[in-house]
Amino acid sequence: MSSKRARKRKTKRKKGANHGKRPNT
User: Fold this and answer.
1) Which position has the higher pLDDT, 9 or 15?
2) Distance of alpha carbon 11 from alpha carbon 5, whole angstroms
3) Any residues with CB less than 8 A from the CB of 23 and at least 6 apart, and which?
4) What's the whole-model pTM score?
5) How far apart (Å, rounded) are the C-alpha atoms in residues 25 and 2?
6) pLDDT at residue 9 in the model
7) In sequence order, which residues have a C-beta less than 8 Å from that of residue 11 and are 6 or more positions away?
8) Where does the source fall among the domains of life (predicted)?
9) What's the average model confidence in pLDDT over 3-24?
């Protein structure tokens, strides 16, 4: 999972099934 190195920003955790994972909005 080296793609995570590109975006190393802490985003506000969205409520829902994807906790911590990248938001699929």
Assistant:
1) 9
2) 14
3) 11, 14
4) 0.12
5) 22
6) 73
7) 23
8) Bacteria
9) 66
